[in-house]
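Researcher: We plan to redesign the surface later, but first we want a full-length starting point. C-alpha cells attached.
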C-alpha cells in the first residue's frame, strides 16, 4: 500500500495519530472530521495515498463510491439527520487543504445547522 510519510491522513491510516473511525475495510477508511461543520461530518478516504480525484486509480474510485452510500445511510440513521451533502474538493483552487483524496459526508439538520 502506498503511503506518504508527511501526510496526515496516511498517519491516521497507520494509526500514528488517532481518529474516530466510522467505517473500515481493506481499502477504505471513514472517520469523523476534526472540525465537524455539522454533527457527524465524516471523511471517506482510500487507505492508499492518492492526492486527488485526478490521481485516483479507477478501481479505487469504484470501491469508494460503492461504500459511500452505505456509510451515508448509516450516518443519516445514527445522527437522525434530515439529509446529507457529499462534497469532494480537488485541487487548491477548489478548496482542498489535505492532499490525500477524501469525500466529505455532511449530515444536514435544517437551516442554521452550520453548512450552506
Ligand atoms: P479539504 O478542505 O481538503 O476538502 O478537507 C480537509 C478536511 O480534513 C477538513 O475538513 C479538516 O477539518 C479535516 N482534517 C484536517 N486534519 C485532520 C485530522 O488530523 N484529523 C481529522 N479527523 N480531520 C482532519
Ligand atoms: Zn496520504
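Model: Full-length starting sequence:
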Amino acid at each position: 500500500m502506498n503511503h506518504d510519510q508527511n501526510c496526515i491522513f496516511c498517519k491516521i491510516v497507520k494509526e500514528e495519530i488517532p481518529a474516530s473511525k466510522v467505517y473500515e475495510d481493506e481499502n477504505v477508511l471513514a472517520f469523523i472530521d476534526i472540525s465537524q461543520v455539522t454533527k457527524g461530518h465524516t471523511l471517506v478516504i482510500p487507505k492508499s495515498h492518492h492526492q486527488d480525484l485526478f490521481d485516483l486509480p479507477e478501481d479505487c474510485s469504484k470501491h469508494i463510491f460503492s461504500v459511500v452510500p452505505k456509510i451515508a445511510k448509516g450516518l443519516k440513521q445514527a445522527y437522525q439527520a434530515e439529509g446529507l451533502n457529499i462534497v469532494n474538493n480537488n485541487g487548491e483552487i477548489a478548496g482542498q487543504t489535505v492532499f490525500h483524496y477524501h469525500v466529505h459526508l455532511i449530515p444536514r439538520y435544517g437551516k442554521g445547522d452550520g453548512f450552506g
